[in-house]
Structure prediction request, 268 residues.
Amino acid sequence: MHKTVRKVLRAVADYDPDYFDMYADQAEAMFARLYVERILRHASAAGIRPPASLLEAGCQAGRLVVPFAKAGFRVTGIDTSGFALRRAREHAKAAGVEAAFVQGDLLTVLRRRPASQFDLVVCAEVVYLSPQHRQMLEALAAAVRPGGLLCVSHRPKMYYLLEALRQYDGASAAEVLRRGEGPFRDSAYYNWQTQDELRALYRSLGLRCIALHPIDRLAWLGQVDVKRLSQAQRAQWVQWELELPDEAAGGFARYLLVVAQRPAAAHT
Ligand SMILES: C[S@@+](CC[C@H](N)C(=O)[O-])C[C@H]1O[C@@H](n2cnc3c(N)ncnc32)[C@H](O)[C@@H]1O
Prediction:
């Protein structure tokens, strides 16, 4: 369906049959479990337990908002899309959980409320799409209370390298190796990093990088359509992913989840 028609349908009828609702999609729900499991483990290790506060920046239809709210966190979701937030509200209501939602650009919203800080700040599958990724990370880091955790997913350089090579596109592969952002094949803009670059980036933000977890190696590398797996098989895949050492597959994954801690305030 044409983009303008979709826009009008959304505005007039609050309806978009082509909307990719990540909460409702079975494959995306499976990958959400990887994020949630990883983050809950780190939160618990850092002494952050429900009802701690959690911000999800770029929350779309609530794929992560709902499970974190179910786990007992006080969740706030931000998204530029009012349509996405309406879906997120509906999913939260259907799941019997409460969450707060704010519509707007995360940079604007966070700059408007410099004093609000959260125990956990999560931003999944958002920053790789924006040329303002550095400013976004600074704003997200500032929204973490001292001692709290920032959990952000990034696109690994190896992801785009392999995606280019799968298409026999050596020119794009060479560009991916040479640059860290810009156009890639048919898309106008992405950014991507190596693991070392991510560690250096978070250090430069004054954060302590605790872990770099790959998110989705088996399905992506194996080119497996997760929707063809049964529910039991999907549960088994999540376990395999979580049990595989982070180093397995050497940086080849669909996303890398950085878990970084803001240093606790020094006592005087
Ligand atoms: C790929 S979805 C990720 C959804 C969610 N984080 C998850 O993992 O299920 C990206 C979402 O980020 C939102 N987004 C992109 N840039 C944003 C920005 N600058 N501020 C707020 N939301 C943004 C988009 O509207 C979209 O809903």
Observations:
- The mean pLDDT is 94.
- Residues 26-45 form the longest helix (20 residues).
